[in-house]
Amino acid sequence: MKFTADQNNVKLVGRTMLIGDTLWLGLSGTGAEFVFTGKKLSVTFVADEIAHGDQNEIARAAVFVDGVRKADEMLDTDEKTVCVIDSEEPVTANVQVIKLTESPMSAAGVKPLETDDGASIVPAAERPLKMEFIGDSITCGYGVDDEVAEHQFKTATEDVTRAYAYKTARMLNADYSMFSASGYGIITGYTEGDVKLEDQRLPQFYESLGYSRGSFGGVKPQDVAWDFSRFVPDIIVINLGTNDDSYCRDFADRRADYQAEYVKFLKEVRRLNPDSVIFCGVGIMGTRIYLPLARAAAAYCAETGDRKVFTVKFFEQDTEKDGVAANWHPTEATHEKAAKYLTMIIKETLGWD
Asked: Hey, how many other C-beta atoms are within 10 angstroms of the C-beta on 297?
């Protein structure tokens, strides 16, 4: 039997797009979650055109069965099929199909799920809380599988499920949606000089399915508007500023620019998510940009009267104690600490036990 990964059969996770019978995934953490009952389940992934290009940018995807990783694949061929359940007797299991890597590098598709005759697939139950995370490489889990600081980016070592955002969602028993890209910021991407990389501003893509050098079967996600009614978050966490700090540093005019543009982005996020509680955080890879961020949040609240926006100053990573991942990014130990801290802040702020 075959089951298309659409909303009738699965719970869609993140900003996804169904084209024909293929569910396309771009952003980190996108995928599907469902309850399977039967003897055999196979998942077929489809690669985008990047599979025939830079092998450091091909998509990576995983399948979890009852929380256990049963498949972890680099999509370096046009299609790849993995059998994740093969039992002599029928079993019932929660299954998660997750794109582990980020949208700018590459996209991935999921073809109809194949099962034994008589099997069933139904959408997983909605969790009581919905969260959206807007961020950069930290949110994506950049380099978390490679604890050598001098190593550079490659999708093979990126895993969103080992990063603070995914972990926070799990700690709060929340469904999530990620909107993140490595190197991107509010006013500029990461730079080692004084040139503002304005093409790497994340807000420009926020109203779309994302951004990718690859495509969803020929469709560019940046050209497709996102329907914000499909996922209405109770909580939004924005973690943007680490890359801006590479440009702003201690220059007052640049920090003022970041502050002003942050206010504009907050207005956009609020317009599209009128009822969400918003947490604005930064600091895991450096806290220097926190002050203009906090000033931006305060200025926005003073101007609009919005009382549902809060700031979070993360603890900076302790590289001596917790190690460091590729290109000086956080290790899973650091992500775990950040998730626990953010979970605590959210609960305390909202008065939850």
From this structure: 22
